[in-house]
Design a protein that fits this description.
single chain; alpha+beta; 2 domains
Length: 127
């Protein structure tokens, strides 16, 4: 069962609106409960680096965000270093890819990064 399917089944357990508070407060409380359920089910939110720090956090809008995003400087240096896609040799628009995935604890250090063209990056599963 996927994370979202788990969350949906858990949502059925949330109490319905009973009139004990204003509807606006109830909606806020329910949104908080939904976030907590989603956070418990999300494997990415449980992912940690080798030193035990969290790799992802949940934003106030309920989205996941990396706790240590790749800097523009590092991104530029990797593209300048590789100059072409390391898989196919294309000089087309390049993207920076983690050799060991960030979600699996891969670092943002240049030795764990490579330049890939968009089609190669997508075929690997990157965005």
């Amino acid at each position: 069962m996927s994370i979202s399917q788990h969350a949906v089944s858990d949502l059925a357990d949330l109490p319905p609106y009973d009139g004990s508070m204003s509807i606006d407060l109830w909606k806020i409380a329910r949104a908080r409960q939904i976030k907590e359920i989603t956070a418990r089910k999300s494997a990415l939110l449980r992912a940690q680096s080798a030193d035990g720090t969290d790799l992802y956090r949940m934003t106030s809008g309920g989205n996941l965000s990396r706790t240590s995003p790749l800097s523009k400087t590092t991104r530029r240096k990797v593209i300048e270093r590789d100059k072409v896609c390391v898989w196919c040799g294309s000089a087309g628009p390049l993207e920076v890819d983690h050799v060991t995935r960030y979600a699996d604890g891969g670092s943002n250090r240049p030795d764990n990064l490579q330049a890939l063209c968009a089609p190669c990056h997508r075929s690997k599963g990157g965005k």
